[in-house]
Amino acid sequence: MKAVCWHGANDVRVETVPDPKILNPRDAIVKITSTAICGSDLHLYDGYIPTMEKGDILGHEFMGEVVELGSAVKNIKIGDRVVIPFTISCGNCFFCNRDLWSLCDNSNPNAWIAEKLMGHSPSGLFGYSHMLGGYAGGQAEYARVPFADVGLFKVPDGLEDDQVLFLTDIFPTGYMAAENCDIEPGDTVAVWGCGPVGQFAIRSAYLLGAEQVIAIDRIPERLKMAEEYGKAKVLNYTEVDVGEALKEMTGGRGPDACIDAVGMEAHGTDFMGLFDQVKQTVRLETDRPTALREAIVACRKGGNVSIPGVYGGFIDKVPMGAAMNKALTMKTGQTHVHKYLKPLLEHIQKGDIDPSFVITHQLPLEQAPQGYEIFKHKQDNCIKVVLKP
């Protein structure tokens, strides 16, 4: 089969690799019909996530048709159209039983690597380094899905791929980010980053009852999408002092909740932003926390800071004094996708949201290297790339 394979920083290639096989009775093989390039994939592309190996198959946002099933999978049948959560979960452990699916104890065969860095291991992830399981991803023609009896979600008839593909990651991720804000009627929510996750965080904040959402970015097409599709008020951080603007827009109090939808490769316009880039380049700091710093300082006293943006290691000069003295609540984590599939599917079916609004580019799988470059450098007004095997 053809698959998108990682060969180093800024080097992905579409190669012919062996077809996946059933390895466990709970496995399934899925023929991929749609797959996407995620902002998290760019962290791999840029070389910032450790334990990648040459030839690793990328991709964790994918869906398709079941073509083979292990003997223990009884709730899905061959021919079913399915979406696949990017978090791999067993469905039976302490954490899965508490709806903490991305913390599954049984899906990361390389848990010992993650434990060295984090103390405990999260779940395995598709296409996202050997530290998180070394699983082949879904930017390919076929994929093996372990724990398929809990990891495959059947798509109802009448829904197109583009409407449901993002249930695999970015729609639940944006929704969980907003849910972590504990939004109450009348709240103002500020969202740093208007990429795909930020766009869904904006829409989700309104679904959960926010009165006002303020979106912060520097890319015109992203700000335009946040304003037109998300009905957000927008701030271009290269043109205004974000902290002062947020105070002015909230009567001096600050947003009730702040969402960092940027993560480890945030850009800054001040000296600290440049300093972060230098430190990250020479590996004195693994992640650039510009957006997180701003969110903590901007948030009102007693407010909530939600962090769906991916962080991979260590960050410097985080204003913990502000977080502690303002009594902020901070919530983060890889998304518990399984928890949100049914309620978010209902929003799609009722017409509350059509997630396909974020798609700007559709390319054949063979053009994945071009897609990565377009997405990384934000060329051609690119916000989201979907690949078609």
UniProtKB/TrEMBL annotation:
Keyword Nucleotidyltransferase: no
PROSITE patterns given in the database record: ADH_ZINC
Entries under InterPro entries matching the protein: ADH-like_C, ADH-like_N, ADH_Zn_CS, GroES-like_sf, NAD(P)-bd_dom_sf
Cofactor: Zn(2+)
Keyword set, alphabetical order: Metal-binding, Oxidoreductase, Zinc
One Pfam family from the record: ADH_zinc_N
GO molecular function, one term: zinc ion binding
Residue ranges of domain Alcohol dehydrogenase-like N-terminal in the record: 25-156
Residues in Alcohol dehydrogenase-like C-terminal domain copies: 196-265
Family: Belongs to the zinc-containing alcohol dehydrogenase family.
Protein name: Glutathione-dependent formaldehyde dehydrogenase
